[in-house]
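Narrative of activities, Objective 1.

The group set out to show that a structural description can be obtained from nothing but a protein's sequence at a throughput compatible with the screening campaign. Below is one input-output pair from the validation batch, recorded exactly as produced.
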Amino acid sequence: MSHVDDKVIELARAALSFEYGGEHFFRHAAGMTRNASGKAMFLRLAEEETDRMEDMHLLFSAIIGEEMWQRLSAEEAENAHPSQVVADMEAEVAKRGHSVVADDTQALRLAMELERRFIQLFREIASHTNDPDVIKLAGKIIDGECFQYDNLQAQLDSVLNTGMWLDMPEFRMDGKF
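Output recorded for this entry:
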């Protein structure tokens, strides 16, 4: 395997790790917040995590092949330790000095950090291919993650400025709201 192939496989493993840990992470964040609207939002995000797996399947099987993708996916599913994703995110936020904030804002910051890492990961994946269909699919995933990040940022702004949770997204990036 070439260096690029090794890097793409490393990226696939990282994406799978985030994906398998993501649902658990959002459920953990729902448990961190005391607000009913906040809990509902995090639980909705947990349910949406499964939608991304099909796009990841298409993306990675096009880059590394169906057989390799299936093998990596099975390995990561078997070895998934969702609590490690939670621990990593909490350690990152603590390192940045946000560990003393209230539980609601802590949960939002952790979720934003997870989304930021996922966006960065898929940008890196897109840079390892010249296939326009794969680049387009990576862009679709990135756009979805950016939308979630922006909604989390709006939630954080609302909680910090007014102390109120938004019960639905306040905007869409495509201007349809």
